[in-house]
Structures are given as C-alpha cells and as structure tokens.
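Case study 2.
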Amino acid sequence: MNWRALSASRVTTQYPVHRLHGVILLALLVFTLLLGMGNSLHSRMLWIGEQTWPNYYLLDPWASEPSCNLDMDVEAAVQKRMDAYKPDPDELFSSPPDPDKLRESFRKNLELCQKKHAMFAANQEHVTPALTAFKVVEQGIAHWLLDNIDLTKFLFLGLFALAALIAAFDTDHIALRLPRNRGEWKLSQTFQLVVNGLMTYSLVSYAGRLGASPSSETQLELQYAWAAVFAVFMVINVYRLTNVPERMRAGGLTPSSFLVIPLYCQMGLIAMAYFFFVDGYSAGLAIYFGQLTNLASMFINIGLYVLVGMILKQTRLPDLLLNVIQPFHLPAPALASLMIFATAFPTAFTGASGIFILAVGGVIYDELRKAGAGRQLSLATTAMSGSMGVVLNPCLLIVVVAALNKEVTTDELYGWGFWIFLMSASIFSLLVCRTQGNWRPRPQAGAFAEAGRRLGPLVPYILTAAVVVGLVWFLLGLGFNEYSAPLILPLVMLALVFMDSGAGNREAGESRWSAFFSRSAAAASDSAVHIGALLALMGFSVCLGGILERSDVVHAIFPESLTNPWLVMAVIVVMLTFIGMIMDPFGAVILVSATIAQAAINLGIDPLHFWMVCLVAFELGYLSPPVALNHLLTRQVVGETEVLAAERTGSFWHRYERLLLPLVVMGTTLLIVAFVPMFFYN
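Prediction:
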C-alpha cells in the first residue's frame, strides 16, 4: 500500500467499499446512538415539564374523579357502624367497637378524601391540550425505554455479526502477517473454520444447559442467535477456502506460515483446549465470550469510537492541522516529539484503541518522511501515536476501569494519567533528540504569522464542533465528558464531514448531500472491518483470560505469605506486562478486575497506584511483541513493503528502532510509575 497520505477532498478508504453494508452499519450505529441518548432525552423532557407546568410529576391528564364521598356525615357513619354491630356467639371476648376510634378513623378518611378531591381539582385546572400532548410523548419514551432494556444486547449482536462478517469475507482479521500464497491462505481459513465451529458447538452446548434449567427466555435467545452468527462465519470460511483469490500465487507452508493464523483463532484454540481437556466444561468458551453481551454498551462505545476515527479520515482536519506547523520547518526529531504530544489527545478521543493510527497514521508517516525522518523513526512514532492517550480524558479504557472497580474514580485516574503522559512523552523526546541529533527548528521568516494565517481554515471546524456540543447540551442537558463522549463525538464528526463536503472539497458535479452520504458510507464501510476484527479479538481475549480466572494461577502468584510490597509490585509489573502483550486491553481490564486487582490490593498495594501501573503496562502491551497491535495497524497503513525495507540496513538499534524505541520509552515509564511511589508507602 502506498504510504503517502490521500487527499480528503474525495472519499478515502483503506478497504473495498461495501456501500450497502456501510449504510446498514451506519444506521445501526446511529440507532444505537439515539438509544443511548434516550435516557438523557427523557430526563430533559421531565425537566422541561417541571419548568413549564409546576408539579408536572403529579399532573395526570387522564385522571378520574375520586370515588370517595366528600359529603360524608361522620356522626351518622359512626352511628351506622354501631347499629350494625352484632355480638359473635363464638367469640369469648366479643365487644362493640369504640365510637371514639371509629369517629377518628372516619375523620381521617374524610380528610384524605378532601385532599384527593383538591388534588383532582388542581390537576384539572392545569390540564391543557399542550400538557396532554407533551405527556403522551414523554410517557411513550419512558415506556419504550423500559420495554427495550435488552434491545442493546441484540443491537450489539447485530453490530458484531455484520462487522465480523465483512472482516471474515474480506479476510481482514488481525494476524501477525498476511497470507502470501495459496497454502497460507488455506491454512488461515482452515483455522478460522475450526475455531468458529468450536465456538458454535460451545454456544449450542451452553444453550442446552440453559434450556434444561430455569432461565430467562432472552438469555436463551441470545445464545442461539450467537450460534447462528458463528455458523454463518463457518459458511464464509468454507466459501473462502474453496474459492482462493487469483492474486494468490502457488506455494506451500513454511514454519513462518503459522503467523497468518488470525490472533483470535490462536486465543480461541488455547482457551477451548483448556475448557475441553483441563476443565471439562465445553460451555466455557460461550460463557466467557458472553461477557461481551453483558457489557454490550461498553463494546458498542468502542464501535462508535472506531466510527469517529474513520470519519476523521474523511475530513481535511489532519492535513489542515499539520499545515499549521509546516512554516517552522521542524527537523525529524522535533517533529516526531511534537507528533507524540499533539496526537495523544485525539487518540484519547478515539478510545485509545489504535483506530487513530488507521485514521491519520498515513498522514503522520508522510509528514515525518518529508521532514527527513528515517523509516524506523517514522514507524515508531506512528505506532506510539495510537496509544499515548490511553491515560488521558476521555479515554474509554479508564471509564471501564472505574466502572468495574469502585476503589478508584475517573477523576483520580485522569488526573495522575496526565502527569504520566507528560513524563512518557518527555522521555520519548529526550531519547529521540539524543539518538537522532539535529533537533533545532529552522523556521522561515514570519513563521508565527504564517502559522496564524493557516489557523484560519480550522475556525469553521471549531465553531461547528462547538455548535453541535452546545445543541446536545441545550436539547438533552448532556454535557461533554468521558461518559458522553462516545455519544457526542460521532455527531460532531458527521457535522464536520457535512461542512467539509462544501464546494471545492468534492468531485465535480457532486452535491454537498451526495458527498456527505458517500463519505459517511465509506467511513462506515471501513469501520465495519475494524469493528469486526477488534471485537473478535476482544471477545476471544476475554476467553483466554478465563483460563487465569478459573485456574489457581493468581493464588499461586500472590500467596498470602507474600508480604513484601516491593516484591508484590515486581510480580504485578511482570504479570500485567505479560497480560498486556497477549490480550486486548479492554478484555485485560475485565480479567484483571476479576482476578489480580483485589489480590494485589489485599497485599497492601494502593488501588490508584495499582491501576496506573496497569494502564501503563497495557500501553506497553500495545507496542510489545508477540502481538504488538499498534505495529500491526501501522503496517496496514504504510504497507508491508515499507516495514520490510526499514529493516534491511544499519546497526541492530537502527534496524529495529521501530520496536526498540517504544519499548525503551514505555518500559522506563512503567518502572518509574511502579517503583518510585513505593518510597512513599508507609
């Protein structure tokens, strides 16, 4: 793939455009977006109702007049009850009712009746056609939300099914390398067929267990729906196995051919082997994969962040931002440092899932190469740009940590995360400037004035984003924060695409609306591939984590006799780094929350300290073999030819700087974050 950045004045895609699938996926995501805003909309309507009609909560346009007697004569009622009394011959101590107590009871009933009639009269005074219409809409939304609590789970299932179907059909599941001949192609498809078959068997087995025991009908339906989805994947694998693309040359297998097996397949085989042969529990794979459904809202948010990244790719924003710094003529080391500092915040806005690399990684690599950076430094910077924002607001990973662990809050994690980011970015800058040299800028005359002039085209984007955020707050009362970011950012980006589709930024003869829909569908089409690949990897990484949870590994690693906090922290660093190297961070957070976190805290590690170490370890895991997800995504953006060309010459450091530089930077950061605070422990 050509690494040069494509112009955003036309539709740009990284994969074949499945326009119909893209439109369906976009509709699914938008509907999910609206569903997520449903509670905010209902709350806003209640607020508007209370501001417009006092005591709105008590007003009922359909209230009927109370049936109690407002003109009741208390004395007559007491006398009537006394006259109606007849001694019971079977009761030993039967006695007539106390008239004073009867009188008090009737008086309280009369007072209550008067209040009911007064409330009814007041209600009737305020009931208007406008109130009735407003109540119909407000209560209709409330009832719809209550009746569709489980809808999010089925929406997530549909989202995963469509996205993973496209990823399977286009053979875009994440692997350490792509197939290069027909033998490797068949090997990849065979393993996918086997794992999808094992998953289908596990799901059917679990559904059988649910059917034989009292369980919710919804849960049973979900299991059969998941089984049907993986059965469809098997059909696709059979088709791709028997219809090898013509571009694949003839060839056999070598030891390195096993690198083409998708990572989710490797994780699935390991997990299923444990559940089958060690645990003797065939439904284990289905149960752990089902955690995706239980946390459907979180994983849908990941899909929304992916969409944000792919929509960003359809705008001119990355090019316009880089144009601002061009007058300063930054040398390669300085530009690389600036990229690390500048890209961390938008990375946090895309959930720190590596999607930022797919969105603008080509532009970053292009600018670094034009500034004179070598391939290795350009690849390292591009890879690191996709994970530096993992500790910054509003990164979704920290929201998940705080949601699963009540000992820490998002404010604490974001607060310390900011300083950790500054430290790691500074270490990167010092190391790059030290090893590369020639870091002093050579700005052109009037560089600041020229940069200020180039900021002009960015003003409409800033104003558009501010208007959308303001409208969401005004209409829904939903402020922009780490919890609402997945809902608001897609709306902001769609508005930016619409604004960016003006005259001069679209094909000749194409209308603004046509350009907007084309770019949105193309972004959704690219999103489908990444959502399918990422969610499959996350689901099976959770299954792999199930081995740690069900085995006694954690108890063996953290015995009660382990009381030295320094030794505990050393074990934590090794354990978390290993988990980060082989698992997706979201699945790893779920695993660590259920297993390691409480054990470490019980042994004296501060919860906030533990989770900051955990986040940095996962950030290191993004960049560490054997998976090194960010490097895999970088390879997809710049092309395998560029990566291979970067490894051909120079010393060991220069040949593998793309791997070693991130490891040194994040490894140093991890050691500082893990052990320096230990000096302040009591």
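Confidence is low (pLDDT under 50) at residues 1-9.
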